[in-house]
């Protein structure tokens, strides 16, 4: 628990490893036992045919809500499934209370189809600023952690995104067509231009990790749900990258962003992608 006079930073210094353990335990108990073993009754649709939820999503989020709340009494959890049940939960991001932002299974479609390209995302935010994040690709047993001002790490190894190799097309992962409106498709279509090589994204959390590792140049996303972006954007920042909305401002987890937005491995790439997106807006 956090002490009365303890800051969030001091809490993280003491308990970050306990957060990692909570994430690993939730995945081990609720996600991995169902991977490639889902029964039909364990998969439901939410807003449409591509918006899936499974028992693994629901149960892992419930477990994380309990365990993270116990680690930091007085904090609240904004989880994807909790917000789906009660949209008012999202308002906690705009308050003064420490908030855990949770996506229990980021890449549910991949999870349902037996693809290992999914992860569990947890971020800790305070007064609208993400201060720490945990990204766990459970099926691959890869764990990434970032703490603001202290760097990004994958399995203990420091991550540096670095600039793209000069002269080649920039690879940009974009919102998957199945999840975009016609208007969003038109905005993203501007990326099909000389010097850019767009492709549909998979798990947002794993795409952000790929940027932090210097394996992907940028993303261009048309939605702003905090659970999809908070953990990964801090990873990108702490690996030396950046993110921009159409107005040239950083993405805000509290919402109200000018979309689409980009995150990239360096500032020059972010400005280039944002500039292309701006031409279509």
TrEMBL record:
Protein name: inositol-phosphate phosphatase
Keyword Magnesium (UniProt): yes
EC top class named in words: hydrolase
Keyword Glycoprotein annotated: no
EC code: 3.1.3.25
Species of origin: Streptomyces eurythermus
Keywords, sorted A to Z: Hydrolase, Magnesium, Metal-binding
Reactions performed catalytically: a myo-inositol phosphate + H2O = myo-inositol + phosphate
Top-level taxon: Bacteria
Pfam families noted in UniProt: Inositol_P (PF00459)
């Amino acid at each position: 628990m956090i002490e009365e006079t303890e800051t969030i930073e001091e809490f993280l210094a003491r308990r970050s490893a306990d957060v990692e353990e909570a994430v690993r335990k939730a995945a081990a108990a609720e996600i991995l036992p169902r991977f490639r073993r889902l029964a039909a009754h364990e998969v439901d649709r939410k807003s449409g045919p591509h918006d899936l939820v499974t028992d693994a999503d629901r149960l892992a989020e419930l477990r994380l809500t309990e365990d993270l709340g116990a680690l930091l009494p007085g904090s609240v959890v904004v989880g994807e499934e909790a917000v789906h049940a009660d949209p008012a939960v999202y308002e906690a991001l705009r308050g003064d209370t420490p908030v855990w932002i949770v996506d229990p299974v980021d890449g549910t479609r991949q999870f349902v189809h037996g693809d290992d390209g999914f992860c569990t995302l947890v971020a800790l935010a305070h007064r609208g600023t993400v201060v720490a994040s945990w990204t766990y690709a459970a099926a691959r047993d890869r764990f990434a952690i970032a703490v603001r001002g202290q760097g990004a790490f994958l399995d203990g190894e420091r991550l540096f995104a670095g600039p793209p190799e000069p002269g080649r097309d920039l690879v940009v992962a974009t919102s998957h067509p199945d999840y975009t409106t016609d208007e969003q498709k038109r905005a993203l279509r501007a990326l099909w231009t000389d010097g850019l090589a767009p492709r549909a994204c998979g798990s947002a959390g794993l795409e952000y990790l790929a940027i932090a590792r210097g394996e992907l140049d940028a993303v261009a996303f048309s939605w702003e749900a905090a659970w999809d972006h908070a953990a990964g954007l801090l990873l990108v920042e702490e690996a030396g990258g950046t993110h921009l909305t159409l107005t040239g401002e950083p993405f805000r987890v509290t919402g109200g962003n000018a979309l689409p937005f980009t995150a990239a491995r360096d500032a020059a790439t972010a400005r280039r992608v944002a500039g292309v997106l701006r031409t279509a807006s």
